[in-house]
Amino acid sequence: STQVATDKVAGKLSSTLSWVKNTVSHTVSQMASQVASPSASLHTTSPSTTLSTPALSPSSPTQLSPDDLELLAKLEEQNRLLETDSKSLRSVNGSRRNSGSSLVSSSSASSNLSHLEEDSWILWGRIVNEWEDVRKKKEKQVKELVRKGIPHHFRAIVWQLLCSAQSMPIKDQYSELLKMTSPCEKLIRRDIARTYPEHDFFKEKDSLGQEVLFNVMKAYSLVDREVGYCQGSAFIVGLLLMQMPEEEAFCVFVKLMQDYRLRELFKPSMAELGLCMYQFECMIQEHLPELYVHFQSQSFHTSMYASSWFLTIFLTTFPLPIATRIFDIFMSEGLEIVFRVGLALLQMNQAELLQLDMEGMLQHFQKVIPHQFDSGPDKLIQASYQVKYNAKKMKKLEKEYTTIKTKEMEEQVEIKRLRTENRLLKQRIETLEKESASLADRLIQHKCSSRYSEDFVLQLEKELVQARLSEAESHCALKEMQDKVLEMEKRNSSLPDEENVARLQEELIAVKLREAESLMGLKELRQQVKDLEEHWQRHLARTTGRWKDPPKKNAVNELQDELMTVRLREAETQAELKETKQRMMEVETQNQINSNHLRRAEQEVTNLQEKVQYLSAQNKGLLAQLNEAKRRQAEIECKSKEEVMAVRLREADRIAAVAELQQHIAELEIQ
What we know:
With 671 residues, this protein is mainly α.
């Protein structure tokens, strides 16, 4: 238990010491900027100013605990020693400007702010406190404020609010993820030393900065195993760690990958990066046609200079103060700012780029452009919002890019098929050449042999010709047979199947039965009509002498007439009944035929549905093959991208080494 307590105390001491180290470094850098700037020196207070964390306001030091006050007293003593040491001030003056991006800042800087900056602080404090209402009601005003720059002390919380990362469940899993093992650990370790190599927080090997950067990258590679780790993402995580603790930085990075298209950019296929390159190239063609033609003539592809802009959001292009301002806008508006800033850079440098070849343009992008805005990023940001950006057109370009890629995949499939056919034809040619060579050898042997005469050789040649002719005939016959088989299959498919034939036979039998019933009814009607005619003739014969007969006979004749009339009506009624039955039979027959047609149609629909299912399954298989081909192509592109990035990183390492050597030589010369 004593050992465990000792380890805990040692861990707390090491974390406290690293925090103190970062705080002292940041304080010294701000003091150096005040010494270097005459305007800043007018407002300099006494060196024994108190320090505050970003969570505390400058005017509330009473909120600190006794332990914090004791720690701050020690920091004040360190500040006095560093201020009196001219060497340390000179070394700080020569360091990078971005060393001020740390988690702790001095309260003297906040107390010396101008009235405008103080108003900005008050405004951002209100925005943070009332974020939900402000985001819904004043979204445009918030965007305008972000474009002007987020104050350093508010940057951590505002970034989390902009991407909605302040309350993510995955934050609770972070400590568990660090205990697991990632397959990308070696790659992450290898690239950590190349991430911000000149920044105080990351430049020392196995420092706190490198350790927390490794932790965040490892945790994300375990959360998203499809992406894992990709070169370039460490620069974004490093910038987040300069502003906030590692758990919050991890949550913000997860949000950026999910909601800001970064995950698609860092996937092994890098398909989203290809889309961004296509869209950016189309924007250059529209807005800067002369420069586009110049790039095409020099074979200067967009990915040669712009891929790092999208992968690192200009963090590897500009110094940190400028890149951080651009990253503020990226957190608010997404990748649109990368398109705007990229096109604005090309517009500003168009005249110089038109005079250079490919090597000169590469040098211009690497050496000149990064230092064009050392005085401040306002000019660049203002120019970027003069660029015309049409979101609908970008969507249209995305559809065009998808169509182009689909056609390319189809062409690749066709090329693969043609290559397969070409390989089979080559094999066939080789086989025929071998057969010809063997026959030639036999002919030569027969010619050289005295046992065979020239007649035998001619006979062999004839046999060879006949064999070739028979082979050609067999091929033709085979093709004819195949055509006949296809034709027979088509005919069989057009003919009704056995079930349909049976149904048609049943319908025919039913129709014949109804026809027989109708004929029987017709015969009965004819017999009744014949009987009625006979009765009518008899009646006429009787009625001819009606008026000559006595009255009794006349009464009998009247009764017979009435009986005859009733019989006639009965015959008419029966005829109408028979006619109605006939119509009913016809309707039933038609109904039966229609039901049979409907049944056949349903059967055809079922067959068509089965065919559709079969075709959809076949289509899924083809899609799977297509996705596999896309994945392989993406792997090849990823490997090439990694090689290009590795070359660039090696070149950056060489440049850094040369700079260090030059600085060492300068120090030796001074000594």
